[in-house]
């Protein structure tokens, strides 16, 4: 079946050559099968294989890699433990979890550990290539059961009055975010909101910190997702 080969969106950095992948699974037969799936794609190449989480971290130190594909259940260090270590070691590294477990608890732990996607081994031949490309575009890749789990989790949190993502920002921060995303300068925002430039800059710094973002482009993307501005 054809795979999605859309280029990464503006503002993201794509590797100059093929996506370099570290593959970690404690079963050699599984690694061989996964490698066959990946290596037949011209834009994907497995450059290192590990048999457990600790070896994956050692290989990540020794190789230039763009993406780590990690099994969850491995000896020495699990894939979840390795993901946490790799996220700290190489902040720009993308991580996918490849697992036989259709399990909400593992899924949420994977997200917390820094994984950008969760692929079931049972459908790896269908989903893995698309998941790798999505990860490199900074897009999450979730199997249908994971999407259901996310929606149920969100609704449960809202039902119990817990803070949901659209309530993270204060009304004033939302105003500043909207104006930043629309391209206004700090001076223009200060004039529009009748506050000082220094206050605008403080709000902007708070927005970046609260949302875990780096620059105006990422703030703009967040504002679009939050429905504050139209794409």
Automatic annotation (TrEMBL):
GO terms for biological process: phosphorelay signal transduction system; regulation of DNA-templated transcription. Residues 20-136 form the Response regulatory domain. The modification 4-aspartylphosphate is found at residue 71. The keyword Transcription applies. SUPFAM superfamilies: C-terminal effector domain of the bipartite response regulators, CheY-like. Keywords: DNA-binding, Phosphoprotein, Transcription, Transcription regulation. GO terms for molecular function: DNA binding. The keyword rRNA-binding does not apply. Residues 162-227 form the HTH luxR-type domain. This is DNA-binding response regulator.
